[in-house]
Amino acid sequence: MSTSTDTPAHVAIVMDGNGRWAERKNRPRTFGHQAGLKALRKIVEHCGNIGVQELTVFAFSSENWKRPEKEVNRLMELFMRALDRETKELHENGVRVRFIGDLSAFSPEMQHKIDLAMRKTGDNNRLILNVAANYGGRWDILNAARKAARAYANGEISIDQINETYFSEQTSLTAGHDPDLFIRTGGEMRISNFLLWQSAYTELYFTETLWPDFGPEAMDRALAAYRSRERRFGLTGEQLRRSSAQGS
Ligand code: IPE
Ligand code: IPE
Ligand code: MG
Fold first, then answer.
1. pLDDT digit of tens for each residue in the chain (248 aa)?
2. Residue 32 C-alpha to ligand 1 middle, in angstroms?
3. Spatial distance between the Cα atoms of 162 and 118, rounded to a whole number of angstroms
């Protein structure tokens, strides 16, 4: 976790606004999702170049299944195509791809492609890209609670061992690497069931820019806003200044 005002180690993005972007152009919403994929490609590349270590993007929420069947089907097709087409390039660029969410709801074919992508890129370390698919923050917390309960029932841990670190390790993201910066495009100021546990101290940034229009320059504006923040984690500003003067 980055406590300073440097480049955030971990950025989380709610890539919202694809549908409205397309509707404004009198095109079907799916056209917006395609444009959204292009925007993601550029942002992944940019993050790799500027030293972001981990990028977590919200691609499909556990609530998005409730959308019209046609839109859901087109999104699934787009994910499948993206897995086929993007994995090689991501691998060549040193990106490790991980999927977080309840993947069991996806077709066996898609689960297979996800598995291949994760295995192929598993040893890369330039940038970790976590794709949240059929993800919900409450699901993540419940899942972690179930894992802890199971470990307790099996006699593997005591109640006292269920602390923040242990619990974090049971969630979908790596413990100790909570997002430093949360970005939501598309103008809505809500979390929409994204990383509820992990964003306890994440800096929040909202922009009206619709996701397909969110390029490296817009990202740099978000990073500049992040750098201007003072992350106090409950301390006073004076305490922070004193500890940074002492070089700790
Ligand atoms: C985000 O864009 C992408 C997904 C949820 C898959 P939306 O599709 O929510 O776009 P808007 O919010 O309707 O414009
Ligand atoms: C959040 O966007 C989920 C993704 C970007 C994948 P939504 O468009 O689903 O969020 P709400 O419905 O406006 O809260
Ligand atoms: Mg939306």
1. 444 459 999 999 999 999 999 999 999 999 999 999 999 999 999 999 999 999 999 999 999 999 999 999 999 999 999 999 999 999 999 999 999 999 999 999 999 999 999 999 999 999 999 999 999 999 999 999 999 999 999 999 999 999 999 999 999 998 779 999 999 999 999 999 999 999 999 999 999 999 999 999 999 999 999 999 999 999 999 999 999 898 75
2. 8
3. 29
DSSP 200: T
Fold of 10-247: Undecaprenyl pyrophosphate synthetase (3.40.1180)
| CB of 56 sitting under 6 A from ligand 2 | no
Nearest CA to ligand 2 atom 11: 192
Cβ(75)–Cβ(58) below 8 Å = no
Please tell me the pTM assigned to this model: 0.96
3-class secondary structure per residue, 107-169? CHHHHHHHHHHHHHCCCCCCEEEEEEEEECHHHHHHHHHHHHHHHHHCCCCCHHHCCHHHHHH
